[in-house]
Write the structure tokens for this entry.
Amino acid sequence: MEATSDWFPTLRGAIMKPMNQLILVFSMGITAMAQNMSYGAENFYRSNNVTSQPINFPTQYRTTVAGNLFYLKDQNNNTAPAVVIGHPMGAVKEQSANLYATKLAEQGFTTVSIDLPFWGASMGEPRNAVLPDLYAEAFSAAVDYLGIQNITSVDRERIGGLGICGSGGFLISAAKLDPRLKAIATASMYDMGTLARQGLQNSQSVDQLKETIAEAAQQRWAEVDGGETQYTGGTLNHLIVNATPVEREFYEYYRTKRGEFVPVGSTPELTTHPTLSTYTKFVNFYPFSGIDTISPRPMLFIAGDQAHSRYFSQDAYSRAAEPKEFLSVPGAGHVDLYDRTELIPFQRLTEFFQANLA
Ligand SMILES: *[C@@H]1O[C@H](CO)[C@@H](O)[C@H](O)[C@H]1NC(C)=O
Ligand SMILES: *[C@@H]1O[C@H](CO)[C@@H](O)[C@H](O)[C@H]1NC(C)=O
Ligand SMILES: *[C@@H]1O[C@H](CO)[C@@H](O)[C@H](O)[C@H]1NC(C)=O
Ligand SMILES: *[C@@H]1O[C@H](CO)[C@@H](O)[C@H](O)[C@H]1NC(C)=O
């Protein structure tokens, strides 16, 4: 049994082998966990005031990104400011991103939620692969889409971005190279690069990292030799007795009716798990390096004061240049800001984008 227990533990011992999963279930038992729907948890919220439709658009590399477009039904087709919204790492647009997109559309924004490449309905093989540059590119591709589509009227000078969890880092990575993103907000941000290099809260040594890299390289050999794709990290498929609080927090969202969503072509067992041989691409991902160059475009970092991931937002905030704001949400943990509508500061997000996409 591995000692590490964070969301994306070191790959050592974390490879999903169906046999091991089975043994865990029988030897340790499954702790039933009731879904916690308090504080207005409403991941699958729909609004009567908002029209939504599925969309597809190309990246600069001719791959296709899937998304949803949201806008107010009675918008009178006036030019509205627009916001591109990215889902948590390992998730899909139906998890958290559609909720934020719907809530902001109610406030008069044209919004687009996207599936990151290799996830959900977006193109990319193998499924669940990691390639942070292409994840970032998907945000810029959504800006392209908004700027040329004919469904609503969007002003190219009034487009912003919002990234939840891992997408916070991917959006920052995109924004450094894409000044068409005029205002940047993140919620419960995860820096997947630092996580892959150092583990959660610096729990991984350099030797462990080297072991992780060696394991991914070994798996790469296995794959070119015709072996099956292996998966790593992500959310526990079965809640084991000694699951950590962080593991329980993710399980309670991703593996219960509260937030579970299985996109077409995937299975409940595979959701949230990146492929083992590509996960190490995050080791070369430094989203906060050069974050100050985003200035004078404004940045808003939102994190719960109870969130295990809060230090990622604090790090980004401290490195960013003005104008910047750190918004601390009292009583909120990391996953709370995915779907708990009474904790997510939609009003503040609305004000931020209204003021900065004016
Ligand atoms: C439900 O979630 C909220 C928000 O994270 C937390 O404050 C509360 O303690 C949880 N309740 C239970 C019974 O776990
Ligand atoms: C929906 O639109 C109606 C009419 O404009 C408005 O009164 C109501 O507050 C809106 N509801 C939401 C949730 O935005
Ligand atoms: C928008 O409409 C014009 C005219 O019908 C068409 O040529 C163009 O391809 C459309 N653009 C998109 C992105 O659909
Ligand atoms: C907005 O206006 C464009 C161009 O006039 C039109 O093609 C489109 O259908 C309108 N969209 C909505 C949502 O009314």
User: Anything to note?
Assistant: The CA atoms of residues 20 and 346 lie 42 Å apart. Residues 1-15, 17-31 have pLDDT under 50 and may be disordered.
